[in-house]
Write a structure and sequence with these properties.
Helix content is 43%, strand content 14%. By secondary structure, it is α/β, with parallel strands linked by helices. It folds into two domains: 10-47 and 301-439, Aspartate Aminotransferase, domain 1 (Alpha-Beta Complex), CATH 3.90.1150; 64-296, 3-Layer(aba) Sandwich (Aspartate Aminotransferase, domain 2). The strands form three sheets. An eight-stranded mixed β-sheet has the order 2-9-8-7-6-3-4-5, sandwiched between helices. A four-stranded antiparallel β-sheet has the order 10-11-14-13. Helix 4 packs parallel to helix 5 (130-140) and helix 6 (159-167) runs parallel beside helix 7 (190-202). The model has no long low-confidence stretch (mean pLDDT 92).
Length: 440
């Protein structure tokens, strides 16, 4: 080409959550049964959509207006409904004009980082959800900026560390929180959220709060929304229905802008995001129309409560299987539907392995194991080739920690127990293989 085609940072776009599927598909092609624990898709894990939600969608499908464009910002009755829900919290107040729809939160996330000034950075949690960290890194052409979540302290962030990173890096203009968190399943305590808001206030920043899992909490936890704590600080809450209904194939998410007029630069960012959506015309109409009908139904809250109860029960099953393994740090989860397991320091070593009987699987594994592969990714590939369990290495979430993420989504509890028994067996065999080799 006569000129470069790729902008700086383009090669930082990574999504191992789906990338590992290619390897799992190779194993599936040779007859290996795959247990999909890599992605947060409840439908893939046997979730059944209630008939009453399907009936609402069927009614919408019979209406001609469902097949037309929506307004660029989103269906007005839906935005009115959502603004009212936020305003009922009694804290920050918004209008329907402060809500902007996107084709899923992936679309929303990429747009925010795409239109930020190149020198302006958003600091986010680590382990980092890769859509955010890759988007921010690609925008900046540099490694993502992160504050650490501590597995030794319930995965809570070190707010003093965050404060110092913000104080001594003037390029930081925003703080990202994911609450409940992906990949750890941690729910931010109120006092930590209030301290983060205070940091944003002191240093004239805005806050992004990814709240796609806001309604998915269990085992006594409560997730506080940004609207409840943001006060007069500019902020963007990101919300959607892919996990909540669940309807991931709807690709329906939205932003809520808080205190937009409090800062001229922030207001201009919001305006550019609106203009970008106008260029695209609009987001998908049907799921937008479904939101107020489904959420207003008297069956909705009991449905959510029962679903969360079931996720909480599955988290207890997983905990009972994995929590006492000596080679890992294990935290119970209280929100979203993930758990991140961390290997203790120096547990992972060269030469560890799992027994694999299938010769074709052995050959595939050998082709995946490069000399520079991260130790946790090496374990993940062995787990996949040996047991057929597909998880995501923690190093793919921009973390110095070594471990892997699993889901809490398998609705068949017998199968759930079998899958995590396989993971337990693999952990013990893999970690002890080094001890055996050393002693021999």
């Amino acid at each position: 080409m006569r000129q470069r085609l790729l902008k700086d940072g383009s090669k930082r776009l990574e999504y191992e959550i789906r990338g590992i599927v290619k390897k799992a598909n190779q194993l599936e092609a040779i007859g290996q049964t795959i247990y999909w624990e890599n992605i947060g898709d409840p439908i893939q894990k046997n979730a059944s959509i209630p008939t009453w939600i399907k009936d609402i969608v069927k009614v919408l499908a019979d209406q001609d207006t469902t097949y037309g464009y929506s307004p660029s910002k989103g269906e007005l009755p839906t935005r009115q409904f959502l603004a009212h829900r936020t305003n009922q919290l009694g804290k920050v107040q918004i209008s329907p004009e402060d809500i902007l729809f996107f084709n899923g939160l992936g679309d929303a996330i990429s747009k925010v980082y795409q239109y930020l000034h190149k020198g302006s950075r958003v600091i986010g949690p680590s382990p980092a959800y890769s859509t955010h960290s890759s988007g921010e890194a690609a925008h900046a052409g540099k490694a993502p900026l992160v504050y650490e979540l501590d597995p030794q302290n319930n995965w809570y962030p070190n707010v003093d560390e965050l404060y110092n990173k913000v104080k001594y890096n003037p390029s930081i203009v925003g703080i990202l929180i994911i609450n409940p968190d992906n990949p750890t399943g941690m729910v931010y305590p109120l006092e930590i959220l209030e301290r983060i808001v205070a940091i944003a206030k002191e240093f004239d920043l805005f806050i992004i709060s990814d709240e796609i899992y806001h309604s998915i909490t269990y085992n006594g936890a409560k997730a506080y929304s940004l609207a409840e704590v943001v006060k007069d600080v500019p902020g963007i809450a990101m919300k959607g229905i892919s996990k909540e209904f669940p309807w991931p194939g709807s690709r329906c998410g939205w932003m809520e802008f808080y205190n937009r007029k409090a800062d001229t630069e922030f207001d201009q960012l919001c305006a550019v995001l609106e203009d970008a959506k106008m260029i695209e015309v609009c987001s998908t109409t049907m799921p937008q129309k479904a939101i107020p009908v489904v959420m207003s139904d008297q069956k909705y809250l009991p449905y959510l409560e029962e679903k969360n109860k079931q996720i909480g029960e599955r988290s207890k099953i997983i905990s009972s299987i994995l929590q006492d393994i000596p080679f890992i740090t294990f935290n119970e989860t209280f929100g979203a539907f993930y758990n991140t397991i961390v290997f203790k320091e120096d547990v992972l070593q060269e030469g560890q392995y799992l027994h694999i009987e299938n010769k074709e699987a052995q050959a595939l594994l050998a082709s995946w194991l490069t000399d520079d592969i991260a130790f946790d990714k090496r374990f993940v590939y062995y787990l996949l080739a040996s047991k057929g369990v597909c998880v995501v290495p923690l190093s793919s979430f921009h973390s110095e920690l070594k471990g892997f993420r699993v889901t809490l989504l398998e609705e068949n509890e017998t199968l759930l127990s079998e899958i995590f028994a396989k993971i337990k067996d693999a952990l013990l065999e893999y970690c002890e293989s080094h001890l055996i080799t050393t002693s021999a």
